[in-house]
Design brief:
- The structure holds 2 protein chains of 2 kinds.
- By secondary structure, chain A is an all-beta fold.
- Chain A has no helices and 11 strands.
- In chain A, strands 2, 4, 5, 6, 9, 10 and 11 form a 7-stranded mixed sheet that branches. In chain A, strands 1-3-8-7 form a 4-stranded antiparallel sheet, with no helix packed on it.
- In chain A, a hairpin with a 2-residue loop joins strand 7 and strand 8.
- The radius of gyration of chain A is 13 Å and the shape is globular.
- Chain B is globular, with a radius of gyration of 14 Å.
- In chain B, the strands form 2 sheets. In chain B, strands 2, 4, 5, 6, 9, 10 and 11 form a 7-stranded mixed sheet that branches. In chain B, strands 1-3-8-7 form a 4-stranded antiparallel sheet, with no helix packed on it.
- In chain B, a hairpin with an 8-residue loop joins strand 5 and strand 6.
- Chain B contains no helices and 11 strands.
- Chain B is 0% helix and 54% strand.
- The chains are: A mainly beta, B mainly beta.
- The interface between A and B is medium-sized, with 22 and 19 residues.
Chain lengths: 103, 125
């Protein structure tokens, strides 16, 4: 069973700053990885699929990279609405999440 | 517009049963695998299980934590997904989401692209 480990657990940044979130898989998953955003009281939203492809309607400030075991979600310039929890996912496994909070 | 609307959550005693429903609209329900994902209060996401489509014989898969206690079914004629939960434990307390799987990208891999708003199940005496 693949384990996904996200870091950091919490990231404190200000609007306009760049956010870099990490997800590490316990074994190679090729590029088969997604990122989701979840705001309080809402369902998760698909942001990135196949490690680096933005889902429909996702702003260009969101980008994903990586393959094998190491993946990164980057938000180039944080908007107020980007402060949320982010999860990586590979098939039936989710990472534990990174909380992106306003500094 | 794709919509998934869960219902059936509530308070149940340990050892009890509950049946959740998910009503789908805005897409060809019968084409898609459908899943249940849950989230305990203040915790992360946990995949519960899936049902494949008719072309794949409606086969099901479950997380180890619920296997033998939970059953996923679907009624394509009603565009509905179900989760029968038996022998409920306090650790099953969570918001339960139904989610659509769809194929994306050059490799046709499946991802959860639409989610319902969730229904809360509380298992407590």
């Amino acid at each position: 069973e693949i384990v996904l480990t996200q870091s950091p657990a919490t990231l404190s940044l200000s609007p306009g700053e760049r956010a870099t979130l990490s997800c590490r898989a316990s074994q190679s998953v090729s590029s088969y990885l997604a990122w989701y955003q979840q705001k309080p009281g809402q369902a998760p939203r698909l942001l990135i699929y196949d490690a680096s492809n933005r889902a429909t309607g996702i702003p260009a400030r969101f980008s994903g990279s990586g393959s094998g075991t190491d993946f990164t979600l980057t938000i180039s310039s944080l908007e107020p609405e980007d402060f949320a929890v982010y999860y990586c996912q590979q098939r039936d496994t989710f990472g534990q999440g990174t909380r992106l909070e306003i500094k | 517009e794709v919509q998934l609307v869960e219902s059936g959550g509530g308070l149940v005693q340990p050892g009890g049963s509950l049946r959740l429903s998910c009503a789908a609209s805005g897409f060809t329900f019968s084409d898609h695998y459908m899943d249940w994902v849950r989230q305990a209060p203040g915790k992360g996401l946990e995949w519960v299980g899936r049902t494949r489509n008719k072309a794949n014989s409606y086969t099901t898969e479950y997380a180890a934590s619920v296997k033998g206690r939970f059953t996923i079914s679907r009624d394509d004629s009603k565009n509905s997904l179900y989760l029968q939960m038996n022998s409920l434990k306090t650790e099953d307390t969570a918001v339960y989401y139904c989610a659509r799987e769809a194929s994306y990208g050059d490799y046709g891999r499946d991802y959860f692209d639409y989610w319902g708003q969730g229904t809360l199940v509380t298992v407590s005496s």
